[in-house]
Specification:
The protein is α+β, with helices and mostly antiparallel strands. The protein has one domain (3-298): 2,3-Dihydroxybiphenyl 1,2-Dioxygenase, domain 1, CATH 3.10.180.50. Helix content is 34%, strand content 20%. It contains ten helices and ten strands. The chain has helices at 3-22, 24-35, 62-71, 114-124, 140-147, 157-166, 168-176, 197-206, 283-289, 295-298; strands spanning 47-55, 75-82, 87-93, 101-107, 182-186, 219-220, 226-230, 235-239, 245-249, 252-258. It has an eight-stranded mixed sheet with strand order 2-3-4-1-5-10-7-6, sandwiched between helices. A two-stranded antiparallel sheet has the order 8-9. A hairpin with a 5-residue loop joins strand 6 (219-220) and strand 7. The longest helix has 20 residues, at 3-22. The chain is globular, with a radius of gyration of 19 Å. The relative contact order is 0.16.
Length: 301
């Protein structure tokens, strides 16, 4: 293993460790999977992708955050545009098989109302240079600390609520910063009876997991080869500037089924690899997955 690979592994481990501490559904799902004999332990789970949310302002946004993962060998792939949610997004292919894809979205701040723009810039204008440029990327601890800290101060509850009225993505990002938005469990490589999203969703709901039903519980790509679902975000206790407190949506868990492409469906199961399955993402799916942190979904818990 080369040095960058080891550093990347440590960074990813740090992200997942803190994410699991905050998202109780992760342990609930893993424990249920072990209890039903779907997996033997957590290491049997394939992480399809992880996702970050960013604010599209000078010195921040995708252009800043992606520098970290490009340094470790990730490759920038397709671009996606979400007109209604005012977002840009890209996905990044991992440097080696077995590592998760990365999906980074960015709020098009300049597309918001002038009032929302003023609120966001009141916090982010303190950042006068790209923090990633001064980050020691060969120090996994430094990168881990950066991804779990903030370049700007805590928002006030008033500002958070004002942003949420126009964009719940904006309010989530201004408070949570780069906190891991979700990780994604691949279901297609699980044992039979659980290796389709329909079957796995049924398993989840039997164990009391609440699913995002925006656009239907299963989000399907037009080609039918990428199926996605997700939990609704858990509510977390948030402390705002001045000490105000409120329970707000945190992070969630996603599930993906990447089906075998038509050209390879003649192959026996033991010859199927990731290269034979649907790759990339689908904007129409992701559009509804974003709503896992919207109060209309998270409030169902």
């Amino acid at each position: 293993m080369n040095n960058k690979q080891a550093i990347l592994d440590a960074v990813l481990d740090g992200l997942m460790r803190r994410y699991k501490e905050r998202v109780s559904d992760v342990a609930s799902i893993i424990n249920a999977m072990i209890a039903e004999g779907i997996i033997k332990d957590e290491k049997d789970i394939e992480n399809d992708h992880i996702a970050f949310r960013t604010l599209g302002v000078p010195h921040l946004g995708v252009g800043s955050l992606e520098k970290i993962f490009l340094y470790y060998g990730y490759v920038k792939k397709e671009y996606y545009f979400f007109a209604d949610k005012k977002l840009n997004a890209w996905w990044y292919a991992p440097p080696t098989p077995g590592l998760p894809r990365i999906f980074i979205s960015e709020l098009r701040v300049s597309d918001l109302s002038s009032d929302s723009q003023k609120i966001i810039h009141r916090y982010t204008d303190i950042v006068q240079s790209d923090p990633a440029d001064s980050l020691h990327l060969d120090d996994a601890n430094a990168v881990d600390a950066y991804l779990h800290s903030s370049a700007w101060g805590l928002p006030s509850l008033t500002d958070y609520e004002a942003l949420a009225l126009e964009s719940e993505y904006a309010s989530w990002a201004i408070y949570n910063r780069y906190y891991l938005n979700h990780f994604t469990l691949s279901v297609h490589n699980l044992k039979k009876g659980y290796n389709t999203l329909e079957a796995f969703n049924s398993f989840l709901e039997r164990h009391g997991i609440v699913l995002n039903d925006a656009g239907g519980k299963i989000k399907r790509s037009p080609d039918g080869n990428l199926l996605q679902s997700s939990t609704v975000a858990g509510m977390v206790d948030a402390v705002f500037a001045g000490g105000d407190q409120k329970r707000i949506p945190g992070s969630y868990v996603e599930f993906a089924e990447r089906r075998v492409l038509a050209a390879f469906r003649h192959l026996p199961d033991n010859q199927i690899t990731a290269a034979h399955r649907r790759e990339g993402f689908e904007a129409s799916n992701a559009d509804k997955i974003f709503e896992s942190t919207y109060i209309e979904q998270a409030g169902k818990r």
